[in-house]
Amino acid sequence: xxxxxxxxxxxxPPLLSAxxxxxxxxxxxxxGVDPIELYLxxxxxASSYMADLHFVEVTMRNAMNDQLTARYGPLWWANxxxxxxxxxxxxxxxxxxxxxxxxxxxxxxxxxxxxxxWVHLLEVGGHTGKPPFRQRREYExxxxxxxxRHAFPHSSRRRDDVHATAARVYALRNRVAHHExxxxxxxxxxxxxxxxxxxRSPREIHDDLVSLVRMISIPVGDxxxxxxxxxxxxxxxxx
Length: 239
What we know:
Elements lengths: L11 H4 L2 H14 L3 H38 L12 H13 L8 H5 L4 H6 L6 E2 L6 E2 L2 H6 L14 H19 L8 E2 L11 E2 L1 H15 L1 H10 L2 H6 L4
Antiparallel strand pairs: 1-2, 3-4
Helix pairs in contact: 2-3, 3-8, 3-9, 8-9, 9-10
């Protein structure tokens, strides 16, 4: 695959911030291409990641919702005994954004919930309420063991393992959504920038993405891996 495409107008580079284009100047020798060409590769790579992320987000959301519905009913998201303040706030925002009414199907609200909501359900859980009535919502006992572990039948069945992979994929999603560079990889959530191994390479983060889908369904994960444009983009340059 060749990356010798037509360069953009000369007016583009000045419109990119010095900090943004500096990343590509720093990495261009490693990739063996011109900085502006690497910027265009990054745009294509982000587009490919976003297509892959579509299947991650939809399959994970539906798999998790199916299991929570089976355990707690279709209005599980309205059960204040299950969710912490952060999750309840996300539900309230989705409820308002969707103009959700009594006659609407739950799927209309669930579609408004961002990927971060579902990743948070895989965490340990936080608190709800105000003192002296503040209580902890233990997601391991409330959500993972009775329901969510069944959404990831091909995982290790350990909540923290699934969450770690999902959190890395969520970090990728945020970089792509905010048009941040991805050619230098993705920094691991909660890891200092200067720490050894702080970044997942572009190939590693793609592997995480496919692995997360395979935890839900091996055939679907294999299909995503086969049809993804990301490996071809990464193999098209000496990196």
